[in-house]
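#onboarding

Welcome to the new folks! Below is a worked example of what a typical request in this channel looks like: someone posts a single protein sequence, and someone else replies with the predicted structure as tokens. Don't worry about understanding the tokens yet, we'll cover that in week two.

Example request:
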Amino acid sequence: MIRKSKPVAYVAAMAISAFLATSGWAQEPTVAGVWKQIDDSTGTLGGLILFRENNGLWEAYIVKMYPKPGDPENPACTACAGDRKNQPVLGLRLIENSKRDGLSYENGTILDPRNGSEYGVQLTLSPDNQTLIVRGYLGIPLLGQSQEWKRLSEDERRKLQPEIERVKLGQTPSNDRAKPAKKKPIDAKGAFAK
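Example response:
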């Protein structure tokens, strides 16, 4: 009788462990928050990118720019198509429709605001939640280029929070003038509160 109860207890313990591993108790990190985009050629900070989830898909917006000398002060995406045409680059939706699968995000697109071109994008988050590999590609991921982005530290985020909150995300210039955008508060991790 005792021998029969040990396998039952073992199976029950395994079932509970599996449940905890797939529930919120052992949640994997996500890309939610603010990331530093580093220019590969110069090693300088190009901008800050805010990721958030929208209806089960992930999107990212430019929330701060670090222009190089001679760059326009308030650039617009004049070569963009659709709702991003002539939209200010600050607040521009850079990445859209990325579907999360653990630490990977696939099937989305990334925009090059310099020329309005869109590419496929594959995102890979490091297990320590501090590094994000962003791979833009044409056709298949093999035909692409990767950048390594770093998560904004908690101190940096606190310092820049008021500036980030002022950015209107995804607003077209005509909608921007018609009515003020409703702001959603940003939580401690840099993601929009629900």
